[in-house]
Amino acid sequence: MNAIPLHLGTPLTRDPSVDHEIQRITGGLTDAETCNTDLAAGPWEFDSRPGYGPGSSMGDVIPAGAPRQGELPAAYREASEDELHDRIVAAKAALGERVVVLGHFYQREEVVRHADYVGDSFQLAKAAKAHPEAEAIVFCGVHFMAETADLLSGSDQAVILPNLAAGCSMADMANIDQVEECWEQLEDVYGPLDAADADGLVPVIPVTYMNSSAAIKGFVGRHGGIVCTSSNARTVLEWAFARGRRVLFFPDQHLGRNTAKAMGVPLEQMPMWNPNRPLGGNAEAELDDARVILWHGFCSVHRRFTVDQIEKARAEHPGVRVIVHPECPMPVVDAADEAGSTDYIRKAIQAATEPTTFAIGTEVNLVQRLAAEHPQHNIFCLDPVVCPCSTMYRIHPGYLAWVLESLAGSPTGTGTAVNRITVPADVAEPARLALERMLAAKPSPQVTA
Ligand code: SF4
After folding, report:
1. How many angstroms separate the alpha carbon of residue 142 from the centre of ligand 1?
2. Which residue pairs from 194-202 have beta carbons closer than 8 angstroms and sit at least 24 positions apart in sequence?
3. Model-level pTM?
4. What is the largest CA-CA distance in the chain?
5. Which residues contact 169 (CB under 8 A, 6 or more apart)?
6. Is 57 in the pocket of ligand 1 (CB under 6 A)?
């Protein structure tokens, strides 16, 4: 499960740029639809507004303490795509091995083409760890990803997020105060949460998805819990069930539900925890019987996929292979042929030897890139409306040029690591423990069989 060095990628045969498509839509050059025409503007147009920006996460509310991006200098806001491209190339060349640029699978094409590695959040954090010689790691992803890279990289390395407004609406749905409060309420229901019963099991093991803040990972580490990714969620739940009567899973209810259901946990033993209601909105008896308590969080991008879209794809493309991400709602996962992480989706397409039609339920930048890399297949996004992850979209090439030129000391001549993300030591230590538990967890024989 390694990130892909970009120079090993397959040459693209058609334009994979979602941004170009959105520009064509807003220019009236195509009948396609986008979820919000504001996406055609530069992110600096909406960085200062209280929200995640136009697109799929528009209804979500940025937490009060979330970092805010200052105004991007005019030289970057006003530069053309070609000029920004040339400036990024020149700054990277000047920096050489002093910098590693990481690009998430969901990042826009104009940024990804400058990445040294492309992958999911954990693959990229590991790629950062593999470059101790780099003094700076520029993470073209979202805030929690840069935090994870900071946890795994050297203390003398600066991890830089090109736009501080690039948060993740799902990660922000579980904040540390809400989680601490939930833990206290669970203690009232189950008694001391660190006391094992006669079978050696504690009442609750907390499990957090990688898509969560470092503060949540630290909480989990302090309370005997563990981190998971969408690739290893089942292995991690098995690890947790070997140590606890039940699991508190956050922030993504869908990944938790889809994974536990596939392991045979009945839906009635998976109550939802709404942090705005006493006992999460549950009766004590429901919590007593629970096997997995699901936090009320979701991904705004993956929530857009529906069973209707799958039925339409099957009607219009007989023989279509439907693969969706496990952050999609359960009925969508049930209706698909397969569900798996971004890495699973990428590998499934790479492994198809015969020309195949794929309908994919994940973020559109990845889907369009896969379609461009594999012209022998017909690959399309299940959602016909072009709607990228609006927080990932905050990383415009203008911000990448700004952070790289700042590092290189051009054009001002003062080399500076702007937008550095640093996890405080008291959080970093238990958060690393939770990540190390994940790395040590091994799948059970029946899972690998
Ligand atoms: S795709 Fe969803 S989970 Fe991923 S960064 Fe965007 S909002 Fe967060």
Report:
1. 8
2. 194/223, 194/224, 197/245, 201/243, 201/244, 201/245, 202/243, 202/244, 202/245
3. 0.93
4. 68
5. 52, 57, 60, 299, 300, 391
6. yes
Q: pLDDT (tens digit, 9 = 90+) per residue, 236-260?
A: 999 999 999 999 999 999 999 999 9
Pocket test for ligand 1, best of 301, 303, 327 (most atoms within 8 A of CB): 301
Ligand 1 midpoint to CA 408 (Å): 30
Query: Mean pLDDT for each 10-residue chunk of the chain (449 residues)?
Result: 54 81 93 90 78 58 71 95 98 95 96 96 87 95 94 93 91 94 98 96 98 97 97 96 98 98 98 97 96 96 96 98 98 98 96 98 97 97 94 94 92 78 95 95 64
Tokens at 447, concatenated: 């899972």
**Which domains can be identified in the chain, with CATH numbers?**
4-14+33-169+391-422 (3.40.50.10800), 176-297 (3.40.50), 302-386 (3.40.50.10800)
Spatial separation of the C-alpha atoms in residues 157 and 179, rounded to whole Å: 30
Contacts of 99 (CB under 8 A, 6+ apart): 92, 134, 135, 136, 137, 138, 404, 407
